[in-house]
Amino acid sequence: MQFQVSDELIERIEFLIENQKDEELLDLLEEIHHADIAEIITELELEQATYLVKLLDSQKTAEALMELDIGVRERILETLSSKEIAEELEEMDTDDAADIISELSLERQQTVIAEIQDEQHAGDIVELLRYDENSAGGLMAKELVKVNENWSVTGCMTEMRAQAENVTRVHSIYVVDNKDKLKGRLSLKDLLTASSKANISDIYIPTVDYVNVHTEGEEVARVMQKYDLEAIPVVDEMGRLVGRVTIDDIVDFIREEAERDYQMAAGISEGVEADASIWKLTRARLPWLILALFGGFVSVTVLGTFDAAMQEHAALFFFVPLIAAMAGNVGVQSSAIVLQGLANQSLRGSLLQRLIKEVLLSLLNGVVLATLLLVGGILLLGFDFLFGLTIGISLISVIIIASLIGTFVPIILDKFGIDPAMATGPFITTSNDIFGIIIFFSIAKSILEF
Amino acid sequence: MQFQVSDELIERIEFLIENQKDEELLDLLEEIHHADIAEIITELELEQATYLVKLLDSQKTAEALMELDIGVRERILETLSSKEIAEELEEMDTDDAADIISELSLERQQTVIAEIQDEQHAGDIVELLRYDENSAGGLMAKELVKVNENWSVTGCMTEMRAQAENVTRVHSIYVVDNKDKLKGRLSLKDLLTASSKANISDIYIPTVDYVNVHTEGEEVARVMQKYDLEAIPVVDEMGRLVGRVTIDDIVDFIREEAERDYQMAAGISEGVEADASIWKLTRARLPWLILALFGGFVSVTVLGTFDAAMQEHAALFFFVPLIAAMAGNVGVQSSAIVLQGLANQSLRGSLLQRLIKEVLLSLLNGVVLATLLLVGGILLLGFDFLFGLTIGISLISVIIIASLIGTFVPIILDKFGIDPAMATGPFITTSNDIFGIIIFFSIAKSILEF
């Protein structure tokens, strides 16, 4: 198919909306996938977008709304009445409906939920709202196909067909007991080939991967990826089957987590898009910049205490940005590798082994870099022996210390249950700048004696 | 199930291997998932791991081999004969087999392929090896279920059952014409409810998303995520159906891409794990550090040209790391936001609009930060008016320039078809350090007149 939302299509739609050609609009949009409808809505002015959302049937718009960026969706939802939003939610799977409701104000949430006609659906949504959005409970949908272990194969087929009506993709049939506790799963093949007199308890597979409602999203993603699962059942504290997480939600989750980690490493403190408002971008960017400013202020003060060196060894001050940059870069490299190791659970071996390895690694890097620097310095800047010694030893020491800070700060934070991703980017570069400068001038002072 | 590979289990397995209790080992491992077998293999010594791989039947080990880290897999494959590797490959899906073969030396590849008994399977693997590993061709598997549009529903059912034997998950049934060109897809429901006399051409759905063998992996992931697909067919240059990409491979791909971007932003130039050897880690880390060193050398030279300021305005030199740090942090923030916008295809509006927005944003950030700095400077360091003015104007200018560099360098690289992720992390911090220092001292020179 390879459909592309073209400028011509957008212009045609704008024209049809302007002239209220509803019939033609419906014809034009009938064959278009809801994800592309979402792209079209994003391109339109708010008023036109709202016109389109109200015109199309709510099954189509419900799915399109889910695909929109949160900012665009917010603006469109504001133009809809609680009843209109409720109609959209009726068409959505419970997990999507809960995600959208959670974006509304608490007051609006209540009026919208009250307008949902399907009591069961409303109850499911309210249940999902209770869970943390990054837990299995927050990621799961209530829609699934389950059968009771005591049913006969014949009864099961009828019941399954009814349940499957509400489920976009069946993936797996789960087996529960009379108390709704998850017992296992059923292969469609076994069901089709089983004698119609058999009971489900005779044919089901008693091993099934599952997660708890409180399992963290990261862990759900890890389990599903490890076992190549396309859906995983979720049980509550009593082992009762309460929902399932499907792979499409996990794909979104993995991407969002990766974006969040990437942004945090870049010193951006809340998920922002390039299209966000200046105000929102400032709020995301300023906190880490203020931290960096304080760090910079500390380095000003530290340098001030070494001003005695200025008379005889002015050149030391020229090397400050070089030393600071090396400390920052080495720290960021080390922290990035450790963070990914923590995320993958691939960090093995004792802390002591890691310490020895990190020292050896940075010693090797440091010696290579110091040699390069000295060759350059002697040829181009005419270093004398003591000055060269100072710069060389400082560079190696700074690299070792910076890589130890980069490695162990995330590990320690993780041990204390703090998100180790905090200790990357601006945090590491700022603290390593300061330590780097202190180490550099301390070594210089003892060698050059000022 | 929530199975965990415990230390006790490992010890038990080690004991059984030492004492060659093959029967007990097979019993113990029979119920364990191949992904967990992979975890066990990783924990064992190489000799024990090889013993296990040779003991277990190749269907189980083939799947476990796929789950191993590349380093562990390499070491195990070295201990196996070409014939033994070929036996493993016979059990794998073509895409996995091709991935593993591509890790071998060219010479070994040939001897292994020659040992594969199933000619068809060998031919499919050889075909897949032709494609770039980051293209749809490199990601796809040959295993799929396809039917000819001219077949009858009855004939189709028999044929489908035979094909489905080789396919782990059917997902979709694709419809092709006599020349193997992709025509559409078939819903299992329509197939089951259709009259047995009907032809496939009467009941198939003629719209189907597909990609070309040369479509980039990033684009395949985007399409599958946008349309919530669990499999997508791949066609060759002539529109013939040649394979399909499944969501589990895309999940791995997305994660690997995210890790690669993250590492690149941290100045690590090839995918390395925390467990890699010191030599490999050095090779990944040293290139960017050498670049940063050269950058540092430039900044030394730049500062040297302003040494006339040292006599009267020594304090300027104390502010160098602060200015450099702010330039680096702002640049990294801007580049991270633009890079994600480029990756999401969510960058909208003209370059001029973006320029104006970026200037306004950094002006706002700059004024806030300069105010904080001045208040601190006046209270703690006793700035005089001209010095304060210098620092304030410099900070604001540096932030504006740094954010413009961070924003537009990736956009320009992208326009020229160069991976914009190159222009982040060390590259941006290093160049912004230098520009920051030049701007700072130029402004200082014109205000303080030295």
From TrEMBL, chains A, B:
UniProt keyword annotations, A-Z: CBS domain, Cell membrane, Magnesium, Membrane, Metal-binding, Transmembrane, Transmembrane helix, Transport
Main location as per UniProt: membrane
Pfam families: CBS, MgtE, MgtE_N
Topological type in the membrane: Multi-pass membrane protein
Location in or out of the cell: Cell membrane; Membrane
Membrane spanning residue stretches: 286-306, 318-339, 359-383, 389-413, 425-444
Domain CBS: start-end pairs: 140-203, 204-260
Similarity comment: family membership: Belongs to the SLC41A transporter family.
Subunit comment: Homodimer.
NCBIfam families referenced in this protein's UniProt entry, alphabetically: mgtE
Function: Acts as a magnesium transporter.
Protein name listed in UniProt: Magnesium transporter MgtE
